[in-house]
Write a structure and sequence with these properties.
By secondary structure, the protein is mainly α. The protein is 76% helix and 0% strand.
Length: 206
């Protein structure tokens, strides 16, 4: 259930005509604030601000194609959106969000290898791109590469140590994978889910 909610949020963000550029100087401050705050509302606001910046093209040469790609996604014309995002990438290969958008479309088309390639290109340009990491986790789960999926979510938590949804999803992946809980994660789960301490203590010890 939690994974379904996260997938839905990712797709909504990917289809929204917001704005981005991974080189924006404001990002450093926003990511630093994510490390400091444990207030859910503030975390949500910071996360949305980061997405808005990532989505600013600030380049009239690619803007029309980029937004046509987003429009095609909203209409469900995924093949056409690939065409538009590819045009953006060819014109400006340093624009991380174009790679990320095309990765999303490829995932929706079931072309996981192409999606993973674009995700890796996104992360080369913006190593902090938690949206791309989310997409990577979805593919790794499909491939039953649970250890790699857990490693990806650990990177998300390094960027946003108070992300309740990330901890919840990571916990669920560990449950379905039947992998042993390492001590570091066990202590984090118990601390993070204080209201459910007895339940998580029980599950982590099995």
């Amino acid at each position: 259930m939690f994974m379904f909610i996260r997938i839905l949020i990712i797709l909504l963000l990917y289809c929204s005509p917001l704005k981005a550029d991974q080189y924006d100087v404001r990002l450093e401050q926003l990511f630093n604030r994510l490390l400091e705050t444990d207030k859910e509302e503030e975390i949500n606001n910071i996360t949305l601000n980061i997405w808005e910046i990532w989505l600013e093209s600030n380049d009239s040469n690619i803007e029309d194609d980029f937004y046509e790609g987003l429009k095609s996604m909203r209409k469900g014309d995924l093949k056409m959106s690939v065409v538009f995002f590819t045009r953006v990438i060819e014109k400006k290969p340093t624009f991380a969000e174009a790679w990320n958008r095309r990765a999303t479309v490829y995932y929706m088309l079931g072309k996981f290898d192409k999606s993973m390639f674009d995700i890796n290109e996104t992360l080369k340009l913006e190593p902090r791109h938690f949206g791309a990491m989310d997409g990577m986790v979805l593919i790794l789960l499909h491939q039953q590469e649970y250890e790699k999926a857990i490693a990806s979510y650990k990177k998300v938590i390094e960027l946003n140590p108070y992300d309740y949804q990330a901890y919840t999803n990571l916990f669920e992946i560990q449950l379905i994978s039947n992998l042993n809980f390492d001590k570091e994660l066990e202590s984090k789960y118990i601390n993070f889910f204080k209201d459910e301490k007895d339940y998580f203590n029980c599950v982590c010890s099995n």
